[in-house]
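Lab notebook: predicted structure, single chain.

Context: the supervisor wants predicted structures on file for every construct in the current expression panel, including those that have not yet been purified. This is the next one on the list. No modifications to the sequence; it matches the entry in the shared construct table.
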Amino acid sequence: MAALPLNTSACVTLSVVSDDPLCAEQLLSFLTDPAISVSNAIVTETGMLPSLSVQSDVVLLIVNSPDIAPVIAGIKTAKVLRGTLKILVLDRSPTVERAVEFMKCGVSDYTEFHEDKAGEHAVRVEQACLDILFDIPEPAVLRGSNKPPEILSLHRKVQKVVRAAKELSSCRTLQAVCERLLETVGDALGATGGSLYLQDGNILRRAHTLDPGHAPEILELPLPTGSLFEQVYSSKEPLIISESSELPGEYSSGWQGYQGESVLVYPLVERSGELIGLFSLHGKKRDIFTKDDRDLVLILAAYSLETIRALLVQERLQEAFNSLSMTFENMSEGIILLDEERRIVQCNQNVARILRLSEDELASGTSIVELCSSLYARGDSTEKANGENPWDAAAGDFSYEHYCNDGAVIRFSGKLLENGANVLTISDITAQKNWETELCLAKDKAEAANASKTNFLANISHELRTPLNAIIGFSEMMRSEVYGALGHEKYDEYVAYINDSGSHLLSLINNLLDLSKAEAGKFKLHKTQLNLSALVANIVAYFRHQSEMAGVALVLKGDGSQGNIEADENAVRQICYNLLSNAIKFTPRGGSVTIELTQESDGRATIAVSDTGIGMDEKSIETALQPFGQVENAFNRKYAGTGLGLPLVSSLCELHEGEFNITSRPGFGTTCIVSIPGG
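Prediction complete. Output recorded below exactly as produced.
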């Protein structure tokens, strides 16, 4: 197993003459083509030119001396010894006169030298060297020379390969180049098998093979460690196997079953060092691969690499373009690309569909201003005054609605690009507009229904209040026996039932009316300076009898020193009534209810009502805060109520710009906290 030598019989030999070795080394570092063999030593004396003409194909002169006479003399002598010698001159102090002198003595190329353009100079030198390969003399000419027979044989192969290289440059597709390269090399070297792979992301994809059925279509990366392909892939250096005993145990199938098992694997590497692909040859007829065979591959690969690289980039760009084109054509919106003169450059197929136009009306070069004018002429309109086009005004992004004569609604959105061009997006928003209209109508209907419900509740509440007040009033008089005894003890019991039921129903109606007003935004607060401590103490006294009857301890905390707050007295009274009523109702006998008053330094007052009752979970709290929300269902209810108390408390707190929070735990009780601003 051998690696590629630095100097081969098939390479172009380059010698460098310069009085500045460091400068020459910098330039030579850019010469990476393997078909060029650079002399190991950089000659600093121009007197060595005659001797270099014998061993070199190309001589590069980097001239710095103002006196060029010795250099000219050396060039003339070298050209006499070898007329085909190609001499390149890079001059640090170029003049017209110096250029004429150099060209007169047979210099092939004369260029001004710049150290910061070493890469460009290297490309020029490299091309001149590779051109030598196309000037290889025919074998008939070589027979009269003193070349050894093996060199004559090699030149015949080189001639064949170089001719093939010329044909490679005419290939227009990547597949054609890969096929031609592999088949030409295989034919020139007598190989019966071989495969060429190109890297495609995390795989090597087979581009061509000389023996279908042997080489797999895809090789997964990373390749098996120690395989021939892995060695070449990692080192980026060609390998040649002359005997089967040298084959590693695992070598990426593709050449098994051939006599001799001689294998040649060659990498295709970019100038940057990135590997493009690799190819292998095997099954050579009646022989094994030699170093000269490898050198021939080197020549053809050097010429085909640029073509492969260019076509590979072209193919990838074409794939990307096709992908973008497919996306462009299949977008749900219409897209128009406009140049800086507002003319159509390109548009997708949806533009014609959305605007109800023919493709001819959207032809490239059509003015978008004229196009919109024609739309207005057919009866279309726009939300912009007088059909004004946004591109007639100041430059910038824009968006507006366009109304077609058939009722369709279209949104035009323009994006200004840095070069002055525009990307115009056209969207059919007819369905969206219809949906918005239906939504608005549904909203209006819902609001009207809600208002009707609120008015009904308010009216019916007023209608019920009058007879209820009469029932309660007369029952109260009968209960007090204002005009004498009723005559039977049962009458006293019935009158008490009538009075309690009427009072309960009146309380329900009042809550319902207040909640309806609050939800409709018609509840008017009448704020006054309110002594909260006195108000709460009065309410606690009112509920004292009820709590004693329920067997629940009622505790008031607060020293009475709280200041006044600005609030609606009836609303605050209603809040406290509902909270205490609920707390007593949902606390079992033997429990307790505590109401505590606090006031912050900014005047904000807090009323906290805590009980040791049944408690609620998070879901139950959400239910209790909804109007008519009942934590228990209608079949297993143990506690009477309408579910209006807590929603009304929440609404009255919001009217005061306050806060209402509930914390509760099933089996441990509930705490309701009302916070009201001080003023």
